[in-house]
Amino acid sequence: MNRPVAVVGAGSLGLGTAWHLASLGHPVTIYDPRLTQRVSRTRSSTELNGTTASLGVLMGHVFRRSSGRGWRLRKRSMELWPLWINRLQRFVPELALQTPLLQVAGDEATGIRLNGLASQRQQLGLKSLSPAELDAIWPRAEHGGLRSEQDGRVDPLKLQQSLRRALEEHQVTQVAEPVDTLERHRSGWRVVRTGGQRDDFAAVVICAALASSALLAPLDHDRPMTPVLGQALRLELKEAPINWQQWPAVLVDQGVNLIPDGPNQLLLGATVEPGSEAAEDPLALMRSLHGKAPDWLKSATVVEHWSGLRARPVERPAPLLEQLEPGLLLASGHYRNGVLLLPASAEWIAAELNHNLPITGA
Ligand SMILES: Cc1cc2nc3c(=O)[nH]c(=O)nc-3n(C[C@H](O)[C@H](O)[C@H](O)COP(=O)(O)OP(=O)(O)OC[C@H]3O[C@@H](n4cnc5c(N)ncnc54)[C@H](O)[C@@H]3O)c2cc1C
User: Fold this and answer.
1) Which helix (H) or strand (E) holds 191?
2) pLDDT(362) > 70
3) Which of these, 25, 28, 354, lies nearest to 199 by C-alpha position?
4) What pLDDT digit, counting tens, does each position of 274-293 carry?
5) Interacting residues of 223 by C-beta distance below 8 A, sequence separation 6+
6) How far are the Cα atoms of 158, 203, 338 from residue 334, in angstroms, in the given order?
7) H-helix or E-strand containing 235?
8) Rounded Cα gap, residues 145 and 134, in angstroms
9) Which domains does the chain have, with CATH numbers?
10) What distance in Å separates the CA atoms of residue 43 and residue 55, rounded to the nearest whole number?
């Protein structure tokens, strides 16, 4: 008999986990009221989930640490991304792994650190860049920077679109209704929808970002998370920078990502603002690159402005990847790197499930 699994939430984590589990043969049901909505940023920005609001930047190999869970998840995700994109392109051919990523050093100490990172990780495609090498693209980089061949970006809208189609292929049941509560039921788990309907599963994976805490509290699992708002912009450039063609997929300066996205269009983001209210000051600082924006950037017109919330775990490191009880798994609280860490997170969840819950059982 097949052992069914429920996934709560259909942002990047929920969709990717559901797809990975279904690919391995698990019968999967995914819940999210947003499943009836098109994946797009055109609706009011307060309605965007974290993934739709995100920029999809993958800063895996440029991570400053070289050990620990954070580094392992990053490294593994960077190995898996090309394979994931390869399989998902069938559903949305424009989905691509856009590379490379250029990180600009803001001061001398950072320049030295990035230089050291480049020499340690040459085999991962890192190379340090001198100010002269950056001059044609970003003449302000007086302390040099780092080029990472495999880091870059995945468009989060195309990613979600392709995952949704992949779920259809695997006959994953999609329920466009919020989950109200989760209950222990016999040797498995009961999902109670807001409409009152009850569905029984052998296991449930919670991928509901900030809403995960409220689902876990009645089960006596305390996993508080706090919102951290991010604002992002799409700019239309009046004059293009001199060497626009040579630009990387992502240029990072002072923590701000500059992403060419279509003719004369540039994405800029994102602010990091504690709480859930968008403020003007951080947006203005980002827009002006802390007063260092080149003229062509200053003269650009804002054609899109949106915001979204990140889920930051309280007093625990991000992300929250845990088996809380047999068959109750949490994949949430990815904070700033939910797109980057998706493949390794989904793989971790599947390994935990397969350990405790063979795909088929008596
Ligand atoms: C402006 C901004 C820029 C970002 N840029 C990047 C970036 O460049 N790179 C990167 O890796 N990360 C980035 N992030 C972070 C990234 O977006 C998140 O880490 C990631 O999207 C989290 O994915 P998720 O699936 O956990 O959450 P979400 O995408 O928020 O999805 C959670 C889903 O759960 C659903 N849900 C909630 N409650 C229930 C319920 N009771 N029942 C059913 N469903 C429910 C919601 O409807 C929602 O669709 C950015 C975030 C923001 C806000």
Assistant:
1) strand 188-193
2) no
3) 28
4) 999 999 999 999 999 999 99
5) 212, 213, 216, 313, 316, 320, 330, 332, 333
6) 20, 21, 5
7) strand 225-236
8) 8
9) 5-59+157-224+315-356 (3.50.50.60), 101-155+227-313 (3.30.9.10)
10) 17
How high is the mean pLDDT of the chain?
Answer: 94
- CB atoms closer than 10 angstroms to residue 39: 21
Spatial separation of the C-alpha atoms in residues 325 and 43, rounded to whole Å = 38
**Residue 249: other Cβ atoms inside 10 A:** 21
pLDDT of residue 165: 98
Q: How far is the CA of 235 from the centre of ligand 1 (A)?
A: 23
**Pocket (CB within 6 angstroms of ligand 1):** 8-14, 31-34, 49-51, 53-57, 178-179, 207-209, 211, 230, 232, 269-270, 308-310, 332, 334-340
Look up residue 121 and give its two tokens.
């990780």
The structure's pTM equals 0.96
Atom of ligand 1 nearest to the CA of 211: 38
With residue 133 as reference, give the H or E element that holds it: helix 131-134
Cα separation of 125 and 85, whole Å? Answer: 19
The rounded Å distance from CA 340 to ligand 1 centre is 12
| CA gap 55, 269 in Å, rounded | 7
Candidate of 339, 340, 345, 348 to mutate for ligand 1, largest count of ligand atoms within 8 Å of Cβ: 339
For residue range 342-360, what is the model confidence (pLDDT) as tens digits?
999 999 999 999 876 655 5
- What is the DSSP annotation of 146-161? EEESS-EE--HHHHHH
**Within 13 A of 324's CA, how many CA atoms are on the CB side?**
23
At 307, give phi and psi (nearest 5°). -145, 165
Residue 139, pLDDT score: 87
